[in-house]
Amino acid sequence: MKYNLFFLRFSFIISAILMLAMAISSYNRLKQLIDNANLVDHTHIVLLTSEELLSTVKDVETGQRGYLLTHRENFLEPFHSGIKNVGIVLGNLGNLTADNLHSRPRFALIKDLTYRKIYLMRENIRQDSTGKISPQTRLGNLIRSKATMDSLRIVVKDFQNDENSLLQKRLQEKGASEEATPFYLLILTLFTLLLLSVSFVLINKELLRRVAFQAELEQQVEALNRSNAELEQFAYVASHDLQEPLRKIRAFSDRLVYKHKENLNEDGRSILDKISVSAGRMQNLIDDLLMFSRLVNKKSEMVEVNLNELLNNILGDLSEMIKSTKAEITIDSLPIINGYSFQLQQLFQNLLSNSLKFIKPDQVPQIKISYHKVSGNEIDGVMSSMIDASFHKFEITDNGIGFEKEYAEKIFVIFQRLHGRHEYGGTGIGLAICKRVVSNHLGYIFADSKLNEGTTFIVYLPVESA
């Protein structure tokens, strides 16, 4: 499952990166196409503006010629308005060629020749208006003005030739972009469809796997429900069918002890004592099994539990055991939590009973219960959905006999014992009950121990109950 999820995520990330790269490349391609079209339009405008300049200068020259021929003032109006237009057109042409280093020197020459031409035409009009100009001077002025106009035409022509060359180059680039863009977009579309198809196949495969897993999980839940029903049936049988004959065995053995113990020899009394002890152990085993079965089938509602009060009650229940062992117990201030009150009592009572039971001879038991809050990422094996959750952490530490680390998980298995029942009493169910209680609260329990150095039981319970 983890491999499939990793592969699906990896494929999605690669697909997303490729799609992003293709989107950026497509944007650049379209931008280049638009830029080439804009450059072509720009060159056309430069050519039109250069033609407009020559036309405007000719208009000014026409106004000058009309005045020189007729000496009428109304011919000066198009002359002066034409000069203003020349300034505007030159300004436009200068702005259009400002970013072209190759065209700027030619534009400077065009500008110089244009203003020189205007200067000569102004001089012709000024001198002619005095009436003192000789025919030779007038002819000379006209020849200089014509030469300047011819030079202006040549320079503008060269300027236009350069712009036409640039136009052809830009048209070729534009054509190449226009030809390549549809092919490129087709490749992009096909590749996108391929990625979508691969993603669909992977997602569909993962969905089918999850559906199959869900069906398998439902079967396991059904099997677990059947197992729980069988366990409930066992609890019923244990509480009625098994306990009734057990009570009779204990009653008859007690009657034998009371009425006939003096008539039995030593061997008979020993057998009778063993019957009583075995019957008592059987009763304890049945009681613990019933307790465990009730924990498996929890149906009560969670309530607020004051752990300080709960621990005080437990210490009262264990007071005889604490007194006989002279145990020293220290407990941190504990929180109020949401949980199953009776189950939490079983949890802490069994853990304290363990610490009071597995003690070293001739050593005062020292037990400490400490508490603080932690984050889920500090817990080994925590579910991914609980990593950011907050947990109550309880540590029950003692200085008892301890055990080897290899048994740290085995001790929570039902009926698992590390010592013979003659050394230490018990049914081997207590820590299994603790494990079940913690599981019912969606928590975690661990044991950390060293042989002959003591044991620490670590309990994590979520702050926010499910």
TrEMBL record:
Annotated keywords: Kinase, Membrane, Phosphoprotein, Transferase, Transmembrane, Transmembrane helix
Histidine kinase domain span: 237-465
Domain of life from the UniProt record: Bacteria
SUPFAM superfamilies found in the cross-reference section: ATPase domain of HSP90 chaperone/DNA topoisomerase II/histidine kinase (SSF55874), Homodimeric domain of signal transducing histidine kinase (SSF47384)
InterPro entries: CHASE3, HATPase_C_sf, HATPase_dom, His_kinase_dom, HisK_dim/P_dom, HisK_dim/P_sf, Sensor_kinase/Photoreceptor, Sig_transdc_His_kin-like_C
Gene Ontology molecular function terms on file: phosphorelay sensor kinase activity
EC number(s) recorded for this UniProt protein: 2.7.13.3
Membrane spanning stretches: 6-24, 183-203
Catalytic activity field: ATP + protein L-histidine = ADP + protein N-phospho-L-histidine
Name used for this protein in its record: histidine kinase
Organism, scientific name: Pseudarcicella hirudinis
